[in-house]
Each structure stands twice: as C-alpha cells, then as structure tokens.
Write a structure and sequence with these properties.
heterodimer, A: about 270 residues, mainly alpha, 2 domains, about 85% helix, about 0% strand, B: about 290 residues, alpha/beta, Rossmann fold, 6-stranded mixed beta sheet, 4-stranded antiparallel beta sheet, globular
C-alpha cells in the first residue's frame, strides 16, 4: 500500500513538474518568437504595403462589428446609467458616466475582446492553414523568411489597428449614449456635453484608454500570430489553435486590464 | 518547430562551409547520413550522389524517409551524423544567411503545390522574382508569362489557385519552382493524386525542363512507371536505408526482391503486408481478462 502511495505521489509530482517546465519552455519560446518578430519589424515597415494590407484585413474589416457593438453598448449604458443616476437626482451627469466608462474601460476592453474573436482568430487560422498546406515551408525553401513576410506584417497590422478600433468604439458608444440620453430620454444636450467636457481629461482618461488598447493590441496580435505559427499542421491542430487564440486573448485582456487599471487610476481615487 | 536564428552578416561571411565534393560533377552528395526524430530513427547510413544535369529518383514506400532526404538537402533538417553537400557547400554547417543564399539556387515542388492561396497564378510565379530581384515590372511580367508558357498555362495567369485542377496547380508550382532558373529542383511526390494525362504531362515537363535549363532534378516518388520513363538513375529506400539503385534499364532487369516487389506491386515480400504483431493464433486465443 505504501509503495503504491509513493508511486502515486511520485507520478503526481512528475505531472506538476512536467506542466511547470512545459509552461516555462513555451513562455521562453514565445519570448524568442516576439524578439524574432521585432527583429523583422524594420523590414516589414520598409515594405509598408504588406502591413497596410493587414491593417485592412484586421482593422477595416472589423469596423462593422466594432461600430455596431460600440453603438449598442453606449445606448445600453445610457439607459442603465440614467436609471441609477435619477435616483440621486444626478441624471445630468449621464454624459460623464457614459464617456468615462467607455473611454477608460469598455472601449479598450470590449473592442479588444471583439478584435480577438474577429481578427485574432482569422489571423491564427490563416497562418495555421498556410503551415498545413506547406505554404510557409515553400516560402522558406524560396529563401523568404515567413517571419518577415507573413508574421511581422500581421502582428503590426493588429497592433496598429487595435487603438484605432477602440477609439472608434468609444466614439460610437458616446454617440449611442447621446441618442438615448438626449434624444430619447430628454436630458439637456448642453448638460450632457458640458459635463462630459468638464469631467473627461485627456490624461489620465483618454490617454490611458489608448495605452490600454495598444497593450491589448500587442497581446492579441502576438497570441494570434504565435498560435498560428505553432499550430499542429492538421485540421484539428488549426481548429484548436484558433480556439486557444480567442480564449487566451480574452483572458489576457481581462487580466492585463486589471493590472493596468490598478496602476493608472490608483491616484484618481479609485483605490 | 524551430525558430530561424537571426541572420548575422558578419558571421555569415566566415560560415561558408565548403566540402570536398567537386560541385562540377555532383550537384548533391549525401555521405553516411543518419537522421532521427527524437529517438525514432528515420534514415541510417544513406550515401548517394546526384550528378549535375541528371534526374535522379528516390523511390520507396510511404513513410520510408524519402521526403526527409529532401528536407536534409534543403537544410530544413540537420542530419544526426554524416555529410550533406550541395553545390560544393556543406548544408548542415551553413549559417542562416548562407543557407538562404544557397536556397535561392533551389526550386522545390511540394506534394500538393503549396501555392500561395491569397495570390493569383501570376503573382505566385512573380513572388520569388519580386522577393529576390529588383527587376522592373515589365520584365517580371514577361518572365512570368514565359515560365507559364513553358508549362502550358499562360492563359491561366489571372486565375486563383482555388480555381485550378490538381494537375494545373502542380504545373503552376513547377513554373514557380523554376522562376529564378535554379541549379537544382526538388520534386516531392510530383505525381501523387494526378489523372493519367496530367501524370504524363508533369513527367514530360520534368524531363524537358531539366534538359532545356541544364538543371539537376531530384524526384521523390513512389510512382515507379512514370519515373522509369523519365529519370536517369533511381535509388530505392526502405526503412531508412538504400536497398537498391541503378539506371532504369538495370532496374527493369533487376531480380532484387525489394525492387521486384516494388515494380510488381506485390503486397507481401521484403516489405511485409502485416505490421509487426504477436502470433495470430496466440492473440486470438489470448485470455482477455
């Protein structure tokens, strides 16, 4: 019995050890991958048309979902916010509530999550399928580095698109808030815009929101290109890599958001 | 998967590793090459010469290590031991930059073409030209049309890869492989999954392009009839070893059991029908509980 117990414990420890070393090795691999992508960045920017093409695919084609979501989130925020603010007789503060919620949090986070689902998964699937159909190997055999030709432009396409999408999400959200708050509910337009103008600062509110969305852009794009490049070259491999991109990106966005919020708004009476 | 190391121009200059093989005679030479994925041996003690200007076929059953040989020649894999010499250079010892410089003289046809699916046929063939040369657009256009004409698909320049049949895709990939007039073209299963007409067309194209462009060709295949028609020399590989070799005439006349089994398509022989297993009777009557 004790020999069985020892063997069981040993196996359990081995499993933990295996998981830890596996995770450490993958983290190291991702870091080397990021360094390699950064190394190829000047080349990707020299041939700007490659990066512009990726900005089109990741950014422009995500516009519909981002703008529509922004609009609806802003409208709901306005409805819910009005209900709460009215209880304290502060319904004229609706503009500032909508704007701050969107610019600081919902804009970067929601657009990050949508971007991961819409563009991140597409990038992973595309690179994974290129690997499966030997297009990456063909490129290597033609003495063209796939990291420079395929990965770096897609990475930067995502990083550049993300803050722009987040800004548009917030802008459309504020417009949605205005439509519901001012046009539907009937709050004074001057109060709505005036409170917003007085209460939202470029720094810490707007700039911090942009910084957040930029960091999310790096995280999602890195996860997306890495998972595609690292995918097992089978149909199942590409499908699970695509799923991993969405799950990992979403968790990473939420975790990074918490950490950044702690550092950014600590002095602004949040904590 | 491995990450390519960063190119380093200062180290690359001193890293041109030559080997003793005369590149004028042998385009490729493998000397006592062994290779294993982790502990699973794939190739052991492979020695072969691919003479310049000839077409050499590497034949063997699926999983016998044929494609691994192409990957070793192309520097995508490093041998566990032994030498791989291409054009007078020792491939495993080359720094990334020198290896990429060598690969510019290669062409490779992948099993299913590996055409870039987001580019048209024209753009696929222009791709290596745009990446490695500064040629003006008019000249690239003329060169692409010439390459496409050579494979009979000038009229398909505007099509996307998804619009091509299997045989057409293989011909476009062939045109892309010879886009930069390589010294060596490697074909990975060029005949797999083709109808008889396309099969004959690809076979004739390999022969014709090899002779017209004075290139050296390595054809990895298991299509014995098509290969015997077009190649100058054949190597037979089984379980990671070269088991027979010879010219097509020698192969036809051979009474080597492996060669005979391969040519006759016999289900049993030196390559057994049954995967290794315990004795049939023993397993059937074994006590399952």
């Amino acid at each position: 019995m004790s020999a069985e117990l020892t063997a069981g414990v040993a196996q359990w420890l081995r499993r933990i050890g295996g998981a830890v070393t596996g995770a450490a090795s993958k983290l190291g691999f991702v870091s080397r991958f990021l360094l390699a992508v950064l190394w190829h960045t000047p080349g990707a920017f020299r041939r700007m048309h490659l990066t512009l093409r990726e900005i089109y695919f990741a950014g422009v084609l995500s516009l519909v979902i981002i703008l529509m979501s922004g609009l609806f989130v802003g409208m709901v925020l306005s409805l819910q916010g009005y209900e709460t603010l009215k209880r304290y007789g502060a319904d004229e503060q609706l503009g500032i509530l909508v704007a701050l919620s969107l610019v600081r949090e919902l804009g970067p986070v929601m657009s990050g999550l949508l971007f991961a689902s819409r563009a991140g998964s597409a990038i992973t699937a595309e690179i994974g399928l290129m690997k499966t159909t030997e297009q990456l190997a063909a490129m290597e055999m033609m003495a063209v580095d796939p990291l420079a030709r395929v990965v770096a432009p897609r990475f930067w396409g995502g990083v550049i698109s993300m803050p722009l999408l987040a800004a548009l999400f917030s802008a459309f959200g504020i417009f949605g808030g205005y439509v519901v708050g001012v046009r539907l509910i009937g709050i004074d337009a001057g109060a709505f815009w005036g409170q917003m103008k007085a209460g939202v600062d470029v720094w810490p509110d707007v700039t911090n929101g942009i910084i957040k969305s930029f960091v999310f852009g790096i995280a999602v794009s890195l996860i997306a290109v890495f998972e595609g490049y690292d995918a097992k070259p089978t149909a199942e491999g590409v499908s699970s890599a695509t799923t991993r991109t969405v799950v990992m990106s979403s968790l990473m966005i939420l975790a990074l958001d918490f950490v950044m919020t702690v550092f950014m708004f600590r002095g602004a009476s949040v904590i | 998967m491995s990450l390519p190391a960063k190119p380093s121009s200062s180290r690359a200059a001193e890293a041109i590793a030559t080997c003793r093989v005369d590149p004028a005679a042998a385009a490729v030479e493998l000397t006592d090459v062994s290779f294993a994925y982790d502990v699973r041996p794939i190739l052991s003690g492979i020695t072969m010469t691919i003479p310049r200007g000839k077409i050499v076929a590497i034949m063997g059953a699926s999983g016998s290590g044929k494609t691994t040989m192409l990957r070793l020649i192309g520097g995508q894999l490093r041998p566990k031991s032994g030498g791989v010499c291409v054009g007078g250079l020792s491939v495993p010892d080359l720094e990334p930059e020198a290896l990429y410089a060598l690969r510019r003289k290669f062409g490779m046809l992948f099993q299913f073409g590996a055409l870039f699916t987001d580019m048209s046929v024209f753009e696929n063939i222009a791709f290596p030209m745009r990446e490695h040369t500064e040629l003006p657009e008019e000249l690239i256009r003329d060169l692409v049309l010439m390459k496409l004409h050579a494979v009979g698909l000038r009229g398909a320049a505007h099509l996307m890869p998804a619009e091509l049949s299997g045989g057409m895709a293989r011909r476009v990939a062939l045109a892309r492989a010879i886009a930069l007039d390589p010294m060596l073209v490697m074909y990975d299963e060029p005949f797999a999954g083709l109808d008889p007409i396309s099969l004959g067309v690809i076979g004739q194209l390999i022969r014709r392009l090899n002779d017209a462009l004075s290139i050296t060709s390595v054809v990895v295949t298991h299509d014995v009839y098509e290969s015997l028609k077009i190649v100058d020399y054949l190597y037979f590989v089984s379980e990671g070893r070269i088991v027979a070799s010879g010219t097509p005439e020698q192969v036809h006349a051979s009474d080597d059991p492996f060669v005979r089994q391969f040519i006759d398509g016999a289900s049993d022989g030196p390559v057994p029908f049954h995967y290794p297993a315990p004795a049939y009777r023993e397993e059937l009557f074994a006590d399952v509980g």
